[in-house]
């Protein structure tokens, strides 16, 4: 029996989001430290607009927080009106909006997400050389505006264009207050500050390297530069590639440039692994999992203490950030993206010779040979910033020492009471336990081992 | 290697003895929460059980637990146990503390010989998450700065880092190894000289306690939220530099009880970064008796007098005389 299709109002199922739902979903997955890093990304993007050459000396970002207020101030050129209108305050990013080439902000969520994550009132004041504006928004009022459910607008409280500001007077001030109670409590903890300093120094290592000065409650953030050991006999691998937008996304556009480095550095169980940067922002640190190169899935050995010398650095850069393999929270890579899959193979191939070298190094340390060419190679090398390596090269290391000649050897290990071992040491007139083991074995073989002949 | 209990006779460390008595004088003040003898005492008694003896004799506490990580000499510890009421638990504190029934108010003194490390911070975390309102948490750690190491170690450093040996950086690396991400942001190797290690350790202990308390509070209604009040901050040096930090964990609704304890009337209580430096002047029994006869001082008008003793030592003694230990040779028969 045919049914009549419903007509009129009944047809409509309301699927438009409420503001509360939207804010809840938007903020639930982002850790507090990461939300704050997102605001620093905006400042860095400002610095890039101001100094496309990437030399940021003289520019600064100052973050200050107390349990009552969060504040970030920079002198990085300010936010242009069109970016503020079409992008910075808008949810999502219109397809036609032109962003900052090579920017860190990418998904059209960062700044707003951070405001909602922190508190219920925010103030943004920004001045460029040509314009200035103020947005002062009470989030509770914005939420409560249910009379016009389609009204998702924020409004400029002040707006001036056609100015001619001096460059040194440009910059952005962001303040968030009426902080949420969990944020208040966290901001009171000294250990939160320590964690944020650590994350800032990791995530923005490259920007800090370009001399952007970042401070947190007055404390300057320092970074560890990305270094690899280099000497006459030990050289890291370096590979540079470009991937066209046509191939990656099916349309014309700026390419993705990739630089990969693999080699050895100071032994550290926690710091060993691959580091991945997208447009200068660290998104994966010291990865020791299948996400990069480790384990059976890639026909590779799993990460192991012997590999604690290993460092790999991958830099993805593009004027079209949408092509890069980062996630919206910038806390990992999008392992399914075509660009990442393509590059991952290269990373694996570059890692293999380094791991072979490190396995040989472990073997060399295990035998009491006279020569230690691999250990010597590491010990005589000097740490060098990867940016200083500019010519493509493969990983170079000295060959391992030839295996000691003579019969194949077998190590024996056993435990005996200390008092007895000490006594044996005295009787044998030797000074080490190794010698005790060898001499007692020799003694036994001398009297019992030659019967068969 | 034998435990430190065979190297140092704990009972003979004068500054430590003073600290122990001061702590005990503070423990006496806990009665607004409940009768002090009904508290539980948890500590690391070693084979001397000095703190256990004092706590049992002067406070009458009989629910006592000594945690002993050296499981290889159980007999020795059992033999030296001074009172039957002391229970011995042979395991790491990290294993024992989470398994304790925390429904009793407790005095917990994690009296370590080691330097502050993540394991000790883990113990602090457990106590902060579990201890009942009105409990005291005290932790002692070694805060001796690293001396310039031997040549082999300097060479090793050079090989590992590819840079010439630098004492400040070497110290920082060691402390980073011990504390991991709990090392306060901005700490430099220059901050790890002399008394500075004690300062850094006190900050780290405080930060971890506050962090843990905040975690515990996240799911508690306002009146049940736990507050931590620092009471103790001692520094002393019988051999190595040591630092002791501690205080009370109580519910916000128990604020009145906390105030009624009147801890702040005790002269050695410290609520902030300023430590109470415990120093034991070297005095003969006769000098001590002579000084005692002039103590307590009435105002500052009268000067204490004892022939031939530096005035600094006399003043130091006056600060600690009530807690001063007396050592003498005794022949047991």
Note down, in words, how this protein is organized.
- The complex is a heterodimer of chains A (453) and B (333).
- By secondary structure, chain A is of the alpha+beta class.
- Chain A folds into 3 domains: 19-220, Heat Shock Protein 90 (2-Layer Sandwich); 227-388, 2-Layer Sandwich (Ribosomal Protein S5, domain 2), CATH 3.30.230; 418-448, no CATH class.
- Chain A has helices at residues 19-28, 32-50, 81-88, 110-118, 139-144, 181-187, 190-203, 205-209, 245-249, 338-366, 373-380, 418-428, 433-448; strands at 60-65, 69-74, 119-127, 132-138, 158-160, 171-179, 213-216, 219-220, 227-230, 237-243, 256-264, 273-278, 281-287, 310-318, 382-385.
- In chain A, the strands form 3 sheets. An 8-stranded mixed beta sheet of chain A has the order 5-4-3-6-2-1-7-8. A 5-stranded mixed beta sheet of chain A has the order 10-11-14-12-13. In chain A, strands 9-15 form a two-stranded antiparallel ribbon.
- In chain A, β3 (119-127) and β4 (132-138) form a beta hairpin.
- In chain A, α12 (418-428) packs across α13 (433-448).
- Chain A is elongated and about 105 Å long.
- The model of chain A has no long low-confidence stretch (mean pLDDT 88).
- Chain B is an alpha/beta fold and 333 residues long.
- Chain B has 2 domains: 4-145 and 194-275, Vaccinia Virus protein VP39 (Rossmann fold, 3-Layer(aba) Sandwich); 285-323, no CATH class.
- In chain B, 36% of the residues lie in helices and 17% in strands.
- Chain B contains 11 helices and 8 strands.
- Chain B has helices at residues 14-27, 50-59, 74-80, 93-96, 118-130, 151-161, 167-179, 196-217, 255-261, 285-292, 311-320; strands at residues 40-43, 63-68, 86-90, 106-115, 135-142, 226-237, 241-251, 276-277.
- In chain B, α5 runs parallel beside α8.
């Amino acid at each position: 029996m045919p049914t009549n299709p419903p007509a009129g109002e009944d047809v409509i199922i309301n699927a438009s989001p409420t503001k509360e739902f939207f804010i809840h979903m938007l903020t639930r997955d982002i850790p507090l430290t990461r939300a704050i890093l997102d605001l620093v990304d905006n400042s860095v993007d400002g610095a890039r607009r101001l100094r496309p050459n990437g030399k940021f000396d003289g520019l600064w970002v100052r973050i200050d927080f107390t349990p009552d207020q969060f504040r970030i101030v920079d002198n990085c050129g300010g936010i242009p009106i069109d970016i503020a209108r079409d992008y910075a305050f808008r949810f999502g990013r219109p397809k036609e909006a032109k962003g900052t080439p090579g920017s860190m902000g990418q998904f059209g969520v960062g700044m707003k997400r951070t405001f909602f994550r922190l508190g219920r009132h925010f103030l943004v004041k920004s001045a460029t050389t040509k314009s200035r504006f103020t947005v002062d928004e009470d989030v509770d009022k914005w939420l409560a505006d249910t009379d016009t459910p389609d009204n998702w607008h924020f409004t400029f409280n002040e707006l001036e264009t056609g100015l001619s500001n001096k460059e040194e007077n440009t910059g952005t001030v962001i303040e968030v207050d009426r902080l949420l109670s969990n944020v208040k409590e966290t901001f009171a903890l000294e250990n939160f500050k320590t964690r944020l300093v650590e994350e800032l120094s990791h995530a923005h290592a490259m920007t800090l390297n370009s001399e952007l000065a970042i401070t947190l409650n007055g404390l300057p953030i320092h970074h560890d530069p990305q270094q690899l050991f280099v000497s006459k006999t030990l050289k890291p691998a370096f590979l540079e590639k470009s991937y066209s937008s046509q191939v990656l996304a099916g349309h014309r556009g700026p390419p993705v440039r990739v630089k990969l480095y693999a080699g050895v550095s100071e032994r550290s169980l926690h710091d060993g692994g691959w580091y991945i940067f997208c447009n200068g922002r660290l998104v994966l640190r010291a990865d020791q999992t299948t996400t990069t190169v480790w384990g059976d899935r890639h026909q590779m050995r799993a990460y192991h203490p012997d590999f604690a010398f290993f460092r790999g650095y991958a830099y993805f850069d593009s004027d079209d950030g949408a092509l890069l393999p980062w996630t919206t929270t910038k806390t990992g890579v999008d392992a399914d993206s075509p660009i990442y899959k393509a590059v991952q193979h290269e990373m694996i191939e570059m890692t293999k010779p380094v791991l072979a070298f490190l396995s040989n190094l472990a073997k060399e340390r295990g035998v009491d040979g006279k020569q230690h060419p691999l250990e010597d190679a590491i010990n005589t090398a000097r740490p060098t910033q990867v940016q200083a390596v500019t010519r493509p090269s493969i990983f170079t290391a000295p060959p391992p020492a030839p295996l000691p000649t003579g019969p194949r050897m077998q190590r024996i290990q056993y435990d005996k009471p200390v008092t007895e071992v000490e006594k044996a040491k005295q009787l044998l007139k030797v000074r080490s336990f190794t010698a005790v083991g060898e001499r007692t074995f020799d003694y036994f073989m001398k009297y019992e081992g030659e019967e068969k002949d | 290697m034998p435990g430190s209990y065979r190297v140092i006779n704990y009972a003979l460390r004068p500054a430590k003895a003073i600290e122990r008595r001061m702590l005990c004088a503070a423990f006496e003040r806990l009665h607004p929460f409940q009768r002090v003898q009904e508290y539980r005492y948890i500590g690391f008694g070693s084979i001397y059980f000095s703190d256990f003896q004092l706590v049992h004799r002067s406070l009458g506490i009989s629910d006592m637990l000594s945690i002993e990580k050296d499981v290889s000499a159980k007999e020795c510890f059992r033999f030296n146990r001074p009172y039957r009421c002391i229970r011995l638990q042979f395991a790491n504190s990290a294993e024992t503390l989470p398994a304790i029934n925390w429904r009793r108010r407790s005095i917990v003194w994690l009296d370590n010989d080691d330097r502050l490390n993540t394991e000790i911070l883990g113990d602090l975390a457990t106590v902060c998450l579990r201890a009942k309102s009105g409990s005291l948490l005290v932790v002692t750690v070694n805060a001796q700065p690293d001396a310039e190491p031997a040549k082999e170690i300097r060479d090793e450093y050079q090989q590992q880092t590819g840079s010439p040996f630098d004492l400040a950086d070497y110290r920082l690396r060691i402390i980073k190894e011990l504390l991991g991400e709990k090392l306060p942001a901005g700490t430099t190797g220059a901050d790890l000289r002399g008394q500075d290690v004690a300062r850094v350790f006190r900050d780290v202990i405080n930060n971890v306690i506050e962090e843990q308390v905040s975690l515990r509070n996240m799911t508690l209604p306002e009146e049940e939220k736990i507050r931590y009040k620092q009471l103790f901050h001692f520094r002393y040096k019988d051999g190595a530099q040591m630092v002791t930090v501690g205080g009370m964990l109580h519910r916000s609704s128990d604020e009145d009880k906390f105030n009624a304890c009147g801890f702040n009337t005790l002269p050695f209580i410290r609520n902030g970064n300023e430590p109470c430096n415990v120093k034991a002047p070297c005095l003969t029994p006769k000098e001590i008796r002579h000084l005692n006869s002039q103590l307590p001082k009435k105002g500052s008008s009268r000067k204490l007098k004892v022939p031939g003793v530096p005035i600094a030592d006399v003043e130091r003694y006056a600060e600690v005389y009530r807690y001063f230990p007396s050592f003498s040779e005794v022949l047991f028969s």
